[in-house]
Amino acid sequence: MFVQEEKIFAGKVLRLHICASDGAEWLEEATEDTSVEKLKERCLKHCAHGSLEDPKSITHHKLIHAASERVLSDARTILEENIQDQDVLLLIKKRAPSPLPKMADVSAEEKKKQDQKAPDKEAILRATANLPSYNMDRAAVQTNMRDAVISLMEMGFDEKEVIDALRVNNNQQNAACEWLLGDRKPSPEELDKGIDPDSPLFQAILDNPVVQLGLTNPKTLLAFEDMLENPLNSTQWMNDPETGPVMLQISRIFQTLNRT
After folding, report:
1. How far is CA 120 from CA 43, 114, 204, in A?
2. Which residue has the higher pLDDT, 101 or 151?
């Protein structure tokens, strides 16, 4: 009797339970040396009741070992995937990948991010290059400072401590009093250093919505640049009705981050 050679050397035949995503179930017999891709093709033919019209449908599906929840590799055999007799395999259609964004959408999104980004120091310098220098009448400011110095000195602090406290707290008497009674952070020496453009403080200032909106005003840009270079001049800009709200917001961010 003639026996085909492949049947002599064929591996063990396994009976596998196949479950499709549409609820269909059937038994599929396959030898251990059958590749997962071949088994998947047979399963798809069973579902389609005939030959596959679209060859891509094989790559668009996957077999999953139900017990271990493993996705079987097409290039490996049933034996290599350690599939046992009576195991349950799930035939699942792969999820379609998300479509790539169109170049126009990407460009629009990048433009939106750039429009919302706060200007850097170079942009501030370019925008304020032709603006005249700003000089302010300091008579009213000096009067308020003198009254604050006298009031705080009457509480027992010496003149240098009081002046330092007012400098650090933008001439706000109540804040200066809290600074004198607290840990006295930040110190006048730290204030004299200005703001490092690479520091988290500088980034926090530029990320603030109030500051971002305010910096669209050229005068506020000039005030911000002056504050970076000369922190002691921030008081002038805080008392200006046009730049004051933004400068006050920057001052609050500065004090909050330095105290934490």
Report:
1. 61, 12, 13
2. 151
CA distance 72 to 66: 10
In angstroms, rounded to a whole number, what is the distance separating the alpha carbons of residues 66 and 80? 16
Order the strands of the 61-65 sheet from edge to edge: 25-31, 13-20, 88-93, 61-65, 70-71
Beta carbons of 161 and 179 less than 8 angstroms apart:
no
Q: Which of 35, 75, 87, 40 is nearest to 61 (CA)?
A: 40
The CA radius of gyration of the chain, in Å to the nearest whole number, is: 37
What domains does the chain contain, in order, with CATH numbers?
12-93 (3.10.20.90), 118-259 (no CATH)
Give CA–CA dist 217/127, Å, rounded.
10
Reported pTM = 0.36
Q: Strand locations in 38-111, DSSP E?
A: 61-65, 70-71, 88-93
Is pLDDT of 133 > 80?
no
Q: How far apart are the first and last CA of the chain?
A: 91
Alpha-carbon torsion (235, 238, 239, 242), positive or negative: positive
